[in-house]
Amino acid sequence: MKKTLIFSTLFFIGGALFGYYVIFPVGFKFFVSALSGTEIRFLPQMKDYLGFISKMLLTFGFVFEMPLVLVLLAKIGLVRHEMLTRARRYVLVLMFLIAGILTPGPDVLSQFLLAVPLLILYELSVLGVRVMERPHPPRKSG
Question: Is residue 68 within 8 Å of 129, Cβ to Cβ?
């Protein structure tokens, strides 16, 4: 239980930091550059800015929990690493679809910047599930 809490916290913070330092600057630059050359001035209100940032940080934090969720599902027997390995083709398409929905702008770069880490997290999940399934030697008490 203690390990789960530690890993959950680390993955969530990692996802939030990734969203803030990698995805947000790309999306923000896209919004600002989309208005350049027009008469429209970009003047975001603080409540809109904070609302957008907090939603994005929560979303990325929860999305980065995927390895932990899949390992826990393997622990209770709902998934196996063979299932996850066979599903790679579909997961690739699904990750790019999810990235397209979650990224702030319609630009391909921010979508790619989210999809690639999601695929890496998926591969970490497969590895974690494989380790979870490996038989462990019995512990000696004494």
Answer: no
CA distance linking residue 118 with residue 113, whole number of Å: 9
What pTM, to 2 d.p., does this model score?
0.74
Q: Please count the CA atoms within 13 angstroms of the CA of 73 that sit on its side-chain side.
A: 14
For the segment 114-142, what is each residue's pLDDT rounded down to a tens digit? 888 889 999 999 998 898 877 766 666 65
Query: What are the structural domain ranges in the chain?
Result: 2-133
3-state SS track over 50-93:
HHHHHHHHHHHHHHCCHHHHHHHHHHCCCCCHHHHHHCHHHHHH
What's the average model confidence in pLDDT over 5-10? 90
Structure tokens at 9: 């916290």
Q: Is the dihedral of CA 65, 71, 75, 76 positive or negative?
A: positive
